[in-house]
Specification:
Strand content of chain A: over 45%
Number of helices of chain A: 0
Oligomer: heterodimer
Helix content of chain A: under 10%
Helix content of chain B: under 10%
Distance between the termini of chain A: 40 Å
Number of helices of chain B: 0
Structural class of chain B: mainly beta
Structural class of chain A: mainly beta
Shape of chain B: globular
Order of helices and strands of chain B: EEEEEEEEEE
Largest sheet of chain A: 7 strands, mixed
Largest sheet of chain B: 7 strands, mixed
Radius of gyration of chain A: 13 Å
Radius of gyration of chain B: 13 Å
């Protein structure tokens, strides 16, 4: 069965940085668009970023552009999210989610269990 | 930007009853509308994609419908495991992915 396992979350001070990882297994990782979605405590879901299978297309939500960097290593079957200049409002569970094999992802069919990022002094 | 508004915010029903959850878009959208179920402490689970297609392994009591600005998730006969929060999500041009604020389905 498809598995996505996030890691790298933790407590960081405002202005700090973190690197999240998502290890994928049981599917052909290199064929799929991958995504990060976050959820602040007690709140709804918010799309963060997407990366195409070959990293040729990368997109960010406006509020994260310039601070977050998505990347992937297909050989290692891993997805990453570098979080810089963190703010209190970035506190959330960050989920790794699988998109599609086509260029048009319309939904997320598998999700990891999430990793919690807490930004606080 | 397209805004997805889900209603009601909370729906109180009993097992065996029919649940109807609404997702309304601020403007006419494509049929790239998905529904997710999320239980406390768990990741979202895909239920419906492209407005009416059930995801792999999703029971037939879950169905999706709608077009234009109005979409509906229907659970024909609620089971105890169905009480959770439900989100709709649209794939648009920009931003590419928008979520509704969620409907909490609780046991009456």
């Amino acid at each position: 069965e498809v598995q996505l396992v996030e890691s790298g979350g933790g407590l960081v001070k405002p202005g700090g940085s973190l690197r999240l990882s998502c290890a994928a297994s049981e599917f052909t990782f290199s064929s799929y668009t991958m995504n990060w979605v976050r959820q602040a405590p007690g709140k709804g879901l918010e799309w963060v970023s997407s990366i195409s299978s070959t990293s040729s297309h990368i997109y960010y939500a406006d509020s994260m552009k310039g601070r977050f960097t998505i990347s992937r290593d297909n050989a290692k079957k891993s997805l990453y999210l570098q979080l810089n200049s963190l703010r209190a409002e970035d506190t959330a569970v960050y989920y790794c989610a699988r998109g599609s094999v086509t260029t048009l992802t319309t939904h997320f069919d598998y999700w990891g269990q999430g990793t919690l990022v807490t930004v606080s002094s | 930007d397209i805004v997805l508004t889900q209603s009601p915010a909370t729906l109180s029903l009993s097992p065996g009853e029919r649940a109807t959850l609404s997702c309304r878009a601020s403007q006419s959208v494509s049929s790239y509308l998905a529904w997710y179920q999320q239980k406390p402490g768990q990741a979202p689970r895909l239920l419906i994609y492209d407005a009416s297609n059930r995801a792999t392994g999703i029971p037939a009591r879950f169905s999706g419908s709608g077009s234009g600005t109005d979409f509906t998730l229907t659970i024909s006969s609620l089971e105890p495991d169905d009480f959770a929060v439900y989100y709709c999500q649209h794939r648009g041009n920009w931003p590419p992915f928008t979520f509704g604020q969620g409907t909490k389905l609780e046991i009456k």
